[in-house]
Amino acid sequence: MRVKAKHLFLFLLLIFGLTSHAQDSSLDKFHAVPSKVLIDPEGTLSIENILASPGGFEDLTTTKLKSNPDFWVWIQMDFQDFIPALEDSDDLFLKCNTFSYGSAYLLKNGRVKEFVIGKFDKKNEQTEPKDYYSGISLAVDDLFEGRFVYLRVKRSEAITNIANWDFGYVSTQYEYLNHYYWSKKHVKQRVPVYIFTGICAIMLFLTLAFYLYSWKKEFLFYALYTL
After folding, report:
1. Distances from the Cα of 81 to the Cαs of 78, 125, 140, 221, in angstroms?
2. DSSP of 181-211, one letter per residue?
3. Which residues of the chain have pLDDT under 70?
4. pLDDT attached to residue 188
5. Whose CA is closest to 105, among 67, 142, 59?
6. For residue 219, which of 36, 64, 208, 211 is within the disulfide window of CB 3.0 to 4.6 Å?
7. From start to end of the chain, where are the E strands?
């Protein structure tokens, strides 16, 4: 009896492990993209100014600069080493920290397009969570000079080390799981499903336990039925 119980336990553990591995391997993790930073204390620089004179940026990882509630910060993301990834997938998203105010600039159909990525828009009204959590779809044709993306951001709620900011990209599936499937709104919508699934899981393990204790086949049938 102990041998059979041990084999059943190992079988269930194997199934769970394989399922977890398959789920994890299907997710692309966050890929950090080399970036540079430029402080705009007066907030007067426009994307046109940056494109006309892209000098003055310093490496993000080595900068000693700190954010300031009154300062705007320009970020230059360099995707040169990630072009193959962008070419191989149509489902990649730009990803960065959350900011109080911000814009991302990309090329769309050959024209500069601005995307709001801050918690608040230019009218100081709160934006939808999808605007600053879900990122922006990204393709090779969206890059300036075939390699750059520019961000203009401001963090007003705290002073932080700019070197600790993260900029990169993620896959659509990873983005969906982290910021839609696990969002508060979606969890509330799925509560009945979670409760039902939890009850079924409890019934499954209880009936399996009764089967292992009594070796009555009807409990095994009950367990299979809950699946």
Report:
1. 8, 37, 12, 55
2. ITSHHHHHHHHHHHHHHHHHHHHHHHHHHHH
3. 1-28, 121-135, 172-190, 219, 221-223, 225-227
4. 64
5. 142
6. 211
7. 31-32, 35-40, 58-59, 72-78, 92-96, 101-108, 111-116, 136-138, 148-154, 167-171
pLDDT at 40: 92
The pTM assigned to this predicted structure is 0.64
Note the pLDDT of residue 1.
46
CA–CA distance, 150 with 144 (Å, rounded to integer): 8
Cβ neighbours of 111 (radius 10 Å): 7
Q: How far apart are CA 166 and CA 58, in angstroms?
A: 15
Token couple for 161 = 């080390």
Paired strand residues for 138: 92
Q: Which residues contact 52 (CB under 8 A, 6 or more apart)?
A: none
Q: How many CA atoms lie within 13 A of 16 on its CB side?
A: 6
Which tokens sit at 44? 């007067």
Exposed e or buried b for every residue in 191-202, given b needs 16+ CB within 10 A?
A: eeeeeeeeeeee
CA atoms of 168 and 84, how far apart (whole Å): 15
b (16+ CB within 10 A) / e for 15-37: eeeeeeeeeeeeebeeeebbbbb
